[in-house]
Amino acid sequence: MPDGWTPLPKGFYHRHPTLVAPDLLNKILVRDDGRAARIVEVEAYAGQEDPAAHSFRGQTLRNATMFGPPGHLYVYFTYGMHWGSNAVCGNGMGVLLRAAEPLKGVDLMRACRVAAKRDRDLASGPGKLSQAFGITRELDGADLVLADRGVAIVSDGTRPPRKPVVGPRIGISKAMDFPWRWHVPDHEHVSVRAPRTLPPRTR
DNA sequence: GTCCCGATTCCCT
DNA sequence: GGGAATCGGGACC
After folding, report:
1. Which end of chain A is more exposed for a tag (fewer CB within 10 A), N or C?
2. Which of the nucleotides in strand B have any atom less than 7 Å away from a protein CB atom?
3. Taking the C1' atom of B13, which residue's CA lies nearest?
């Protein structure tokens, strides 16, 4: 791992996902094969208090990892072909990693993402991010602090944005009014960017 | 750029 | 048996 990249403290994840989520912006997802990307978009899922969460109706085989200790990776499968990656906050809660800016190991990411036309298509969505990093079922439960299975989230000292963009979550059909999606403002690698506001007409 | 649609597997009801 | 924390391609503007 490059100099100055440091693991997050375990306690980082021991908070409500709506606090953890914005704090994860500008942190770095790393694998021990050299892949690294800056997290630029996240969503909070608040367990049994959140109708849109996989864990809303309690623990099942699929979501068991989210009920385990905070700071681990919860990996789920959906739409018959896509994987999603979350940081677990405990009690069925977690933060979905929605988009990241590739920093290192970009050739390997391109090899995993043959459909990507441009580098900003490599990890600009939860399924794309997981595919770029080769994250599947096998990494469900990996410890993101100890990196016991070669995946971690670290800091390079960059702070989260002072004023992240906050808005509704994407791809859900319940609790659509919860403004629990955060992203770095004006960032090229975000999955769905805010509609560009037109400059005022002069006439 | 926007909108629409089909793909394809698993888990839970 | 339904529907899913999505993606990419094609039509159209």
Report:
1. C
2. 2, 7-13
3. A57
The pLDDT tens digits of the residues spanning A11-52 come to 999 999 999 999 999 999 999 999 999 999 999 999 999 999
CB-CB contact of A47 with A92 (8 Å): yes
Look up tokens 């989230």; give the residue. Answer: A153
Residue type, A3: D
- What's the confidence (pLDDT) of residue A125? 97
Q: What is the pTM of this model?
A: 0.95
Cα Rg for chain A, rounded, in angstroms? 16
Residue A194 amino acid letter: A
